[in-house]
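User: Some background: our group keeps a shared notebook of sequences we're curious about, and every so often someone picks one and asks for a predicted structure to add to the entry. Today it's my turn. The entry only has the sequence so far, pasted here. Could you supply the structure so I can complete it?
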Amino acid sequence: MLDEPTYQKLADAAFSAIGDAFEDVDTDLVDCEIAGDVVTLTLRGGRRCIVNTQRPTRQIWLAANARGWHFSWDAAGERWMDDKGRGEELFSTIRRVVHEATGLDVTFE
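Assistant: Of course. Here's the predicted structure to add to the notebook entry:
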């Protein structure tokens, strides 16, 4: 398991990447708000995608479309992967949720 400082650094980097990806997007399509350990993406039509840290488990959780995902840091691949072994990665999952709701293709750096 990651130590707290490493986890916080990686989670902060993920949140920054999410914020950067939506910085120039029309807020009528996706409004991105970061408040502490929570990112709220309000999608066209009022649907929401919530990303938040889970410090006790050192994970990032995502909730959207009445579903939930738990992502753990994969040091070998240097990415956040779902803990159910389905091969879902944090940013690609957010990209899919946003695309399904808005048709927007967003890029994460």
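Suggested note for the entry: Residues 98 and 104 are 7 Å apart (CA to CA). The mean pLDDT is 95.
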